[in-house]
Amino acid sequence: MPGVAHPEPDAVLAQSGEILVRANYRPVFGTFNTLIGLSEGMGDGADWHDLAAAVSVNDTASRVTIEFGADRTLNEVRLQADLNDTYLVTFSTNGKDFSDPWVVGPIQEGASLQTHQTPEGFSRTARFVRIAAVTGGGAYSFGRLDVVTEAGRPARAPG
Fold this sequence. Notes:
By secondary structure, the protein is mainly beta.
């Protein structure tokens, strides 16, 4: 895909209160505001390249890191992503050592953007969540990331 990939290490590209979105690339289309609910976004089935619904992931070396401002116990994570790709979501308390991967695999039914959800019983302690594309059609994108904390509250901007 054309675009400027990896312009600087983990530049802050969106913010809502204490939630920061950093990426090591500038997206070809879309905005990281969609990812954290600062812009409208759209539901499942929206085009994977719709400017109002998604933000591009330029290649498999591109990564996005969301910081919550403090450690949180995450009990549920939902990622709206292009349905025919595989993404790796990892977690960290220090922003350097990412582990405990959640593999977001392709979905066989539906169209374009689809919401993937962690399995029942999921629990991670993290201040940082990192998302990267692993394999797929070569044109990667995601819509929203929703995270539910131990208190049952979203650790994201309202939207």
